[in-house]
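Retro notes, item 3 of 5
We never archived the inputs for the acetyl coenzyme *A complex last cycle. Fixing that now. Sequence and ligand:
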Amino acid sequence: MPFTPDAELDLLFPSEQIPAFVRKQLPAELHIRPLASTDYRRGHLSVLSVLTVVTDPGEDAWRAQFEALRAAPRTYYGIVIVDKASDRIVAVGTVFIERKFLRGLGSVGHIEDIAVDKSQQGKKLGLRIIQALTGISENSGCYKTILNCSDSNIPFYEKCGFQKKENEMAKYA
Ligand code: ACO
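Structure as it came back at the time:
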């Protein structure tokens, strides 16, 4: 599939919200942009499956989920890195902006679902995704950006400028 420029895509949020300094640091053969309504066809779920078990809901249900995210403006920022030669997604990540009553009606950015295709790991794409999401979070006025991760990923997030704080609790249904 030939590379599809942002102008021809139906995007989750405006491309300009991805910090320019991140864009500039990517190799020329890669492109970073917001998630697009047709990214089901560019391997979005297969990259996410690097992270955990992914059940394919089919394209229509995937698209309905995309529209549900977009219906909450200034809240969900899903981004992808695309290999221009194949127009396939090689890295993904999301930041969700939570609006609070605390801290003078402050906001917190929650980073979720970071994954880099196995063949592309170790090339700083994870770092670029985190820099882009943190930039979006801070430009949205968030006073902090947080995430949960396994012990084995702590060194990666430390390299991205994060520090360990408190604990995660979980209750599965
Ligand atoms: N342990 C130690 N250091 C690491 C690790 C690790 N597990 N992973 C990366 N690093 C280091 C790199 O060596 C590099 O260091 P350097 O600057 O000194 O060279 C730096 O962190 C940046 O690494 P990247 O090349 O950007 O890492 P990559 O592109 O491979 O992405 C990621 C890292 C996202 C963890 C990737 O390996 C991946 O997709 N893993 C499987 C899925 C996963 O675990 N995702 C994160 C879940 S947590 C969440 O989603 C909030």
